[in-house]
Specification:
The protein has 5 helices and 2 strands; from the N terminus they run H-H-H-H-E-E-H. It is mainly α. Strands 1-2 form a two-stranded antiparallel sheet.
Length: 159
């Protein structure tokens, strides 16, 4: 056997570093699962923790893959790709961690009016710039009857 045959067979035996790619996939899934916290899905209290656990497993897998690529380079390939994926996965982990911490700071809605409940009285400017209150709108007769409800439309207007 010649030296080129030995080196060719060694290259063919090199394995793909699947831990790096699986870690990247889990990091992306963990970041995307942060958005599920804001939807009305069952188990909302466990979703942030599940997302954080997925991100942690992702980082562990990516670090394991990079360790394989650098310390067992004759068997595993992917030094450059593994390094890039490690940086991307760590950034995704940081974003997931930021989302986890930020989701905890969202105030509760216990004091917000519920559907069908009367809104507290307020005063806002109408399209003509005149101040008008909710009580004024509900007490001003329209035709022969007083209105039972008010539809509020908020728009940003022109800058």
């Amino acid at each position: 056997m010649s030296a080129s045959t030995v080196s060719t067979s060694a290259v063919k035996e090199r394995r793909n570093n699947s831990a790096v790619w699986l870690g990247l996939i889990l990091a992306v899934v963990s970041l995307l699962s942060q958005g599920l916290f804001f939807l009305k899905v069952p188990g909302q209290n466990t979703l942030p923790w599940l997302s954080l656990a997925l991100a942690t497993v992702a980082v562990i897998l990516v670090l394991l893959g990079v360790k394989r690529a650098f310390f067992e380079s004759q068997l595993y390939r992917g030094k450059v790709a593994g390094s890039i994926i490690t940086v991307v996965s760590l950034l995704l982990f940081a974003m997931t961690l930021f989302g986890f911490v930020t989701a905890r700071k969202i105030p509760g809605t216990a004091s917000a009016p519920q559907v069908g409940q009367k809104a507290p009285d307020f005063t806002l400017a109408d399209t003509n710039g005149q101040n008008i209150s909710l009580a004024d709108l509900l007490s001003t007769p329209v035709g022969n009857a007083h209105p039972k409800a008010v539809l509020l439309v908020f728009y940003r207007g022109y800058w």
